[in-house]
Amino acid sequence: MTEAQSYYDGLIAQGHTPEAATGYTTEHFPGFVPGTTPPALAPTPAPAPAPAPAPAPTPAMAAPAMAAPAMAAPAMAAPAMAAPAMAAPAMANPVATQPVALAQPSGPTVIQAGAGGQTSTLLAYVLWFFLGWLGVHHLYIGRGIGIWLLSLITFQGLGLWWFIDLFLIPSSVSKRNQTGQQIYVL
């Protein structure tokens, strides 16, 4: 059996019509002519076990009781089973799919928000003056969590970096306003 024929047989086994399977196969294997022997169909599922004897019919149970003789008679079950049998090859030979991994990424999640507004130099100085020892102005300017944590732990370098920020705030605010992005680390 050629590779093209096995490809064609696989499409038929998945439930494609012979015309569609021929079309798909000729796309990948030009000049393909289907073989005369159709592929073996997947085995049909075993018939359902006979239902238990139904209790005396009541008006509410009249419809299910009438359906029971159709399931019990083998001659009448063949037409009813014909439609599901066509779908059975697709169910009997499922297409291999790759599982989707839903894993949380390790480490911090970084979200960049653009054009949320301009950072104010005046507000940065107010935050620096009143809450500078906590490093809140670093968060407002968008310097990042790492700088903020370092400044928080060292009390702004024992006041040295607090004083140096007096001169660095204008350039940091202008850089933040030029890029137009604020970085949040969660």
Distance between the termini: 58 Å
Query: What overall geometry do the principal axes of the alpha carbons give?
Result: elongated
Secondary-structure class: mainly alpha
Spell out the helices and strands N to C.
HHHHEHHHHHE
Count every helix, treating DSSP H or I runs of 4 or more residues as helices: 9
Assembly annotation: single chain
Q: How much strand? A: 5-15%
Question: Which regions have little confidence, pLDDT < 50, spanning 5+ residues?
Answer: 62-85
Please tell me how large the radius of gyration is.
36 Å
Mean pLDDT: 72
Question: How many individual β-strands?
Answer: 2
Order of strands across the biggest sheet? 1-2
Helix content class: 40-55%
What is the makeup of the main sheet?
2 strands, antiparallel
Relevant terms:
186 residues; mainly alpha
How is the topology of this model organized?
Layout: H1 3-13, H2 18-28, H3 62-72, H4 74-92, E1 110-114, H5 121-131, H6 136-141, H7 145-153, H8 155-158, H9 160-179, E2 181-185
Antiparallel strand pairs: 1-2
Helix pairs in contact: 1-2, 5-9
